[in-house]
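Entry 12.
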Amino acid sequence: MSLGEGSTPLIRANRISERLGLDVYLKLESMNPTASFKDRGMTIAVSKALEERVQVVICASTGNTAASAATYAARAGLATVILQPAGAVALGKLAQARAVGAQVMEVRGNFDQALAAARELAARGTHALVNSLNPYRLEGQKTAAFEIVEELGAPPDVLALPYGGGGNTRAYGIGFDEWGAGTPLILAGEAQDRGGTVASAIRITEPVHRKYAQRAIEGSGGATVTLTDDAILAAWRELAEREGVFCEPSSAASLAVLSQSDILKGSVAVCIVTGHGLKDPRTVERSTLPPIQVDPEPDAIAEAAIGT
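Predicted 3D structure (tokens):
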């Protein structure tokens, strides 16, 4: 069940590279079909669910998994049940899941409780769990590591990415290890307030892949970096205003990590941009200036635009 996922752009961040004294690249996973990295693994997970003749896929989600699961299930002709923490999912992601016909349920609890319920239903054999606990998800997500090496000609010195449940960190570790040319130093950015961060995609208090993610991070000589919401939003603005890359706040954790880390000057660093900014339009409303009201007259417009 494919929608043309993968083969996402790897672009050089010229102005950020100059500021940091690094050779910084952005892997735009936001350019996948449902605008997040989740599609790489979901294409395999849903294809396998179809092969195994399961009629319903289920996931717990803070948004991106839901949008991806619902979309690929619709492509496969399967029903989807989405369990989301009440009030914790960004509007753009919820809209995607609802638009393609998923049955969305708000759980009176957090992500971890929603995931426990989804796992129980899957254990009964009635539903296929398509969270990253599904091993097929990791097999798909590791392909991003292959693409980075192919495009750069070698693994980067540093890989920076957001750290929510830890599945993507684990998948990159697997990918670079399987490629066999060496693993970059992995820097994973987690929110200081995991349960209430503005970066809703990494609002996960108990990472289910913690053990494996930490193994990948520590084995690379890297580190887990704790980030404040202010640091994440500052990186979010810089990506948009200085590089023209509009991402959801959690994606900006990758750049925030680079900004806070002591990295050898001239190193090649890749930041994973995990999801598009349209996933979370409310952050724009909260964090940017509102439109300026003007009369439809050239002089009035020119005067209002002074200083911009």
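Annotation: The longest strand covers residues 79-85. The chain has a mean pLDDT of 94.
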